[in-house]
Amino acid sequence: MNPKFILTILAFVALLAQGWAQEKTVTGTVTSADDGAPLIGVSILIKSTAVGTITDIDGRYQIKTTDDATLVFSYTGFQSQEMPVNGQSTIDVKMTSGVVLDGIVVTALGISREKKALGYSVQEVQGEEIAATQENNLINALQGKVAGVQINSSSGAPGAGASIVIRGLNSLNPTASNQPLFVIDGIPISNQTSAGNQLPSSGSNAVNSQEQSSFTNRAADINPADIESISILKGPSATALYGLRAANGVVLITTKKGQTEGKANVSLNTSFGWEEVNKQPELQTVFREGRHGRLRFNSDGSPLRFQTFGPKVYEGKTPTFDPVDDFFQTGTQVRNSLSIQGGNERATYFTSFSRLDHEGIIPFTEWDRTTVRLGGTIKVADPLTVSGSVGYTNSGGNKPHEGDKSIMSSLSYYTTSFDINDYLNPDGSQSDFSDGIIDNPRYLAEFSQLKDNVHRVNGYIGFNYQPATWFELDYKVGNDFYNDSRVRSIPAGTDLGSQSGGFIIEEQLNYRELTSNLYARFSKQLGGGFNSSLTVGHNITDIQFNSTNTRGEGFSLENFYDLSNTTNVFASKNASRQRLVGLFGILSLSYNNYLYLDITGRNDWSSTLPKENRSFFYPSVSLSWVLSEMATLPEPISFLKLRGSWAQVGKDAEPYQIGVFYAGASNFPFNGVNGFSLSTSAGDFNLKPETTTSTEFGLDLRMFHNRLGLDVTLYQQNSKDQIIPVPVSNATGFSRFITNAGEIENSGVELLLNATPIKTKNFNWGLSVNWSKVNSEVKSIKDGIDAIIFSDNRITNKLIEGGKVGDLFGWDFNRNDNGQLLIDDNGFPTLNYDTMILVGNAFPDWIGGLTNTLSYKGLSLSVLLEWRSGGDVYDTGYRNSLRNGILKETERGYEQVVFNGVREDGTPNDIPVEINGESLYRNGSRYNDSYENLLQDASWFRIRRVSLSYDIPTSLWGGKYISGAKVTLSGNNLFLNTPFKGFDPETNFFGSGSNVYGYTGLKTPATRSYFVSLALSF
Length: 1018
Fold this sequence. Notes:
Blueprint: H1 3-16, E1 23-32, E2 43-46, E3 52-54, E4 60-66, E5 70-75, E6 78-84, E7 93-95, E8 104-106, E9 112-114, E10 122-126, H2 127-132, E11 149-153, E12 162-166, E13 181-184, E14 187-189, E15 227-233, H3 236-239, E16 250-255, E17 265-277, H4 323-327, E18 331-343, E19 347-359, E20 366-381, E21 384-399, H5 407-413, H6 441-447, E22 449-468, E23 471-490, E24 503-527, E25 530-555, E26 566-591, E27 595-606, E28 615-626, H7 627-630, E29 637-651, E30 662-664, E31 676-678, E32 681-683, E33 690-703, E34 708-720, E35 723-727, E36 736-740, E37 742-759, E38 763-781, E39 788-793, E40 795-799, E41 807-813, E42 831-841, E43 846-856, E44 859-869, E45 872-875, H8 878-883, E46 895-897, E47 913-915, H9 917-921, H10 924-928, H11 931-934, E48 935-937, E49 940-951, E50 964-977, E51 999-1000, E52 1007-1017
Parallel strand pairs: 1-7, 13-16, 32-36, 45-51
Antiparallel strand pairs: 1-4, 2-3, 2-5, 5-6, 8-9, 10-15, 11-12, 13-14, 15-16, 17-18, 17-52, 18-19, 19-20, 20-21, 21-22, 22-23, 23-24, 24-25, 25-26, 26-27, 27-28, 28-29, 29-33, 30-31, 33-34, 34-37, 35-36, 37-38, 38-43, 39-40, 40-41, 41-42, 43-44, 44-49, 45-48, 46-47, 49-50, 50-52
Helix pairs in contact: 5-6
């Protein structure tokens, strides 16, 4: 660690040790200025400290403080107030209702601070908003609510994973993680999405296992109803204290701990929902199966039904079907939760139980989740408080087969001439129209299965020691453990299982993360308007992961899917361990309640880096200047703040990327002989940590007594010394060399607008708008590397120096210097396969959300609208449907056309040609490999969420046993307007754990869902 930084800390501690003020106890009551009613749960903080309390059921509070301290009172829906103690023992406060755009937020290390004191952007979402969405995955519950955050679901399947990217990708490595760190009650937890190894030894064209199913991201194990609030820490200034794991941002989750009302509060919530496909491609019903306008037959006279370019359909004589409508079913969700909380000033408790059962739109797919959580606090003695929380989750179900040779792949080929639900022969084998060329999707849904069963335990125990208001010692130790047990079985009679005789995979994934956090916090009013606080601490993290994979191939007996029934068995095991140690400190200074300065420093040691480079230091500094507290501004301006920050944060490598390693050879043991092979990659012995440097500026303006608020953030982040696998000559014996090799620059703007156009005694209309734009540029790549390829599948996602992250390249038609199509002697345009050109970008130009909330007495309506402008995607299922003639655009069959272009000699083309399946739609060099046909604009406008709730008056039942009841009707993804031709383009082909964007299709489609829910409190 930097010696100057240590000396600064020690000097400040010595200063704080001199002359502390005498403590005293202050009590009081907080009421509403409107009607005099006591306010329950008002937050009272000693200014410039993390010491605080809340009011009880009668609005009373008690807090230990000093004569020269200032108390800050904040409460949702009321304007915050600051009250100097000035020797008083009793301070009663009347709070005025109003739109509060500022208050107390949870920041790094779980420290509650005034938002106006922060020199960086933090956005908070309350737990009530999260639970009200009825989303099973809490990441999806944040969609459209947070500026600068892009969220994508991997599919519409039950238990499908979701990804969250804050301020753009900051890694050049296709396999690196760009997901933020998730922290629950101060303890980091895993949100990884592990695909494992789900592929057979032969028969699959999948690039990897990520596309084979929408694997669950582990944050989905959290019950949204247990959440008190979520803070999104975006830039390095906000996340620096969390160290290298927070380089991509932090999702800071605070769970419920109980209330000090002196009695138990019981809440019971139940809901029922149903869902359907929200968008689907248009299919043609003009032609039936066949080719060249005729039915197709094998040489023995048997029908060969594959393509749908056959004879015309004659209404009333030729049966036609809609395979999409006929295949998908109505999905259902049943959710029940029970929570009990209570306590007093000495102790609080919170316990909850929840159960979710989700049946998907694909038959036989399901996912369920059972959670139990217990948490609370107890004041052992006046200076010592013990807190803790433990949660258990059991989740899992049957995931649909997606990607290559999957349910959706088969559906993308399926003709409109045959009933998709006619899928079984009398002997139980698969019945399909294509003589074995195309699997029946309904058969795959029933017999091609991947079942997972996850057991997870996470929690912590914490000790907080506050012998004086100026000193606080906090220690927490936490653990996060889960076991993911999977079984995948594929019958021999399917396309994927045909070459291996069918196969079964049994896989066990085990993850354990142990965290220890200790910090000491000192605060002091220095006089002359200056206040100060210092926090110093350390962090230790130990992460272990191991997996075992056993694959059996070649089933001996039909319909008996077990390892004991296979003729070849392969086994592999992987394990890794990673240790992180960090020392950190933050010095906070304020002057006259309008100038706030934070200075932080952290030094990390990582076990995944070379000994010489594993220790690295990074600082940050942030400034908040509240002009409205310093000077009298024009009457319409209620609040005005300028803020700025500069910060650095590091990022280490994945485990075991230095040097050379051996691994178990694929498909071994074989005939009793084991095998190991040299890894195809080697790591640089001089590998350095990645470094992200960020500069951020912002403005916070509120007007008309906080009825209108605007928050603007401008930022730039440069991530250099990128750790990536670069290609090397095969003569070295390796294909990749892991080294530091590039820099990315992310810059952007974020806007937040809050307003209350109408507010009366009974009616309130509030709206919130967020808008953000990110520009990600590849500043440099190591010499000798032309490009870094993320994915190559006719549309290539690759990075080149000077380009943008997410750039997509494709094949264009041959053209002359004027851009006109060149037509060959056969009368068709042809593709230029010599060079790929830049054709689009996977990321949107901007994203935005608008939430309108209207309330009248006990009735409340909330509508969330979401926009995504720009962003291109390749639908991996669209080309299948185009080539097989099932899309509506292929109805133009057997027409004579003249393509608009020129001949080689420059004369206009005048050659008439016939459009049919073989001449055009199935021809890659003439049509379906063209980026113009493959790449689509994924812009959208959608009604993301609508909720209508009613608080039933207690007068209906007297309120003797039931203290509150609310009924809610809600819906998600209710309307979608997009130029995209296929299913909802939001789904990510490579899943939630992938760095690759710009690809969709062959995933379970996104859904439109409706819910009816009832909430009771006792």
